[in-house]
């Protein structure tokens, strides 16, 4: 898979000395969903704004589909659709005319059938003639996505696209994003909803204090850093952990009625069989056993804490 965006040595600083991005190097593959994670102020929106030509970089180069984003601005901008965090719409305009205008600004011929198809996929078709002031915040967010898609971009940037959207609408947007990927659209997603990255992304990048701390395949990241926890609930609590269980480094919760055993699921031996055998020898009676997989959110929080320590 070839790279559609190539970023080298990208930095951004302001006159007051604030350094927002520092020597960012990143390649985004054609047709992938790339999730960019990071806390507020990490530089996610600034990075996207630079690629889209809204903010000027202090140094570095960006190639979009083989074209320099400064020298060939019109070409590169034509390939990009952007859904910003802020809702910026004309309140007295209709949904349909808003999308028509956006398509026209990119020099595309009128195609109401295409726009209606986009609106339908976003559950907006019955609102096509409604003024934007009549819509809820979640509906306006979906109009922003429809507007960004109206000129059929090859690359779509989604900057916190589901902020303020309810769970049902969020899942609808996930389905739309995955459908766009199937059509060959490259999607760069920033989000605070870690489950979005876990549900959709092919690769994940973590940015902290203006620097890329990590870029890795999502599945590889989960395998490499992911751990599992075995939760053991007892019929009756114990006052003291039995001596034979001490080597397993168990965490004791619920006043002695729950043991937590953390293990590497990729290890040749997890130690679970031996743990259960030793547990049986103590005469303790089990009430329930559960396993829990470390999530991408757990990994993200752990990385950010290490970056800030």
Brief characterization of the structure:
This protein is α/β, with parallel strands linked by helices and 309 residues long.
Top keywords for this entry?
14 strands; elongated; 33% helix; 4-stranded antiparallel β-sheet; Rossmann fold; 309 residues; 6-stranded mixed β-sheet; alpha/beta; Alpha-Beta Plaits; 2 domains; single chain
Structure description:
The chain has 309 residues and is α/β, with parallel strands linked by helices. It folds into two domains: 221 residues, Rossmann fold, CATH 3.40.50; 67 residues, 2-Layer Sandwich (Alpha-Beta Plaits), CATH 3.30.70. Helices cover 33% and strands 28% of the residues. It has a six-stranded mixed beta sheet with strand order 6-7-8-3-9-10, with helices on both faces. It has a four-stranded antiparallel beta sheet with strand order 2-1-4-5. The longest helix has 16 residues. The protein is elongated and about 75 Å long. It starts with a strand and ends with a helix. The mean pLDDT is 88.
Helix segment tally:
10
- Radius of gyration, Cα only, in angstroms? 24 Å
- By helix and strand content, what is the structural category? alpha/beta
Helix content: 25-40%
Quaternary structure state of the chains depicted: single chain
CATH topology group of the largest domain:
Rossmann fold
